[in-house]
Each structure stands twice: as structure tokens, then as C-alpha cells.
Amino acid sequence: MNEQQYNTEKKEQTEISVDKMTSIQGTYKANEKIQLFIMWQIYNKRYTVGTKLFYGEIERKVNGVNKQAYAKARLFLEGANLLVDEVIIADKVPNHLIERFGLRSDQTKSQN
């Protein structure tokens, strides 16, 4: 196995699919995938108040991420009062966002 195959295989193991995060089917833009991922992490108690976000971690976990999409997602989450300066400030996702985005509970509770 060469290095490229190893990196591809490793990335596939760490990426989280949108289908796992939401029950709503559709095509999502990169910033929407990031929003979903962060809200899903809060909803499943993986991100708690005070958790610092890092672009590199998001890039590894969400497919198709770029810095512009990351900035847009941060603006949305700041407007939703979930995030300030890349730090989580909410202990739960508001019910209207859970319903709007169809967030799913993670049954496995693995450390993804």
C-alpha cells in the first residue's frame, strides 16, 4: 500500500457522512455541511461549552471544506448563538434548528 492509498483510506475512516447527521435528504453546500457537523456534535454532547474549533479538525471530518465555507458556517453559528470566536457557547442546539436540519442522534457514541 502506498502513501496516497493509505491517506485516502485513513480519510474515509475519519469522514462523517451527511446521512449520519441528518434525516433530510438533499445536496448540501460546503458551509451547510460544516454547520450540520458542528450542530450535530453539540446535539450529541461531543462539543460542550468552551470547546475550541479548529479548521484542520473540521477539514478532516467534513468532505469538501474550504476556508471560505468555514467562515460562512461560523457566521451562521454565531447568529444562532452557538458559537463565538470559534468557541462553543451553547450546551444544546435549539429545537427549531434540530427540526429544521433534521439532526439525528448518534447511536454509536464513538469518538469521531
Name its key features.
single chain, 112 residues, mainly alpha, two-stranded antiparallel sheet, 51% helix, disordered N terminus
Structure in words:
With 112 residues, this protein is mainly alpha-helical. Helices cover 51% and strands 4% of the residues. The protein contains 6 helices and 2 strands, in the order αααααββα. It has helices at 3-14, 18-21, 30-43, 55-61, 67-79, 95-101, and strands at residues 83-84, 87-88. Strands 1-2 form a two-stranded antiparallel ribbon. α3 crosses α5. The two termini are 24 Å apart. Residues 3-13 have low confidence and may be disordered.
Give the arrangement of secondary structure elements.
Elements: H1 3-14, H2 18-21, H3 30-43, H4 55-61, H5 67-79, E1 83-84, E2 87-88, H6 95-101
Antiparallel strand pairs: 1-2
Question: Brief overview, please?
Answer:
The chain is mainly alpha-helical. The protein has six helices and two strands; from the N terminus they run H-H-H-H-H-E-E-H. The chain starts with a helix and ends in an 11-residue tail after the last helix.
Strand order of the largest sheet: 1-2
Overall SS class: mainly alpha
Strand content: under 5%
| Sheet of most strands | 2 strands, antiparallel
What is the tally of helical segments? 6
Q: Work out the number of β strands.
A: 2
The helix-strand sequence is: HHHHHEEH
Assembly state (oligomeric) = single chain
Helix content: 40-55%
Low-confidence stretches: 3-13
Q: Looking at the structure, what is the overall shape?
A: globular
CA(first)-CA(last) distance: 24 Å
Indicate the mean pLDDT.
84
Rg over CA atoms, rounded to whole Å, is 14 Å
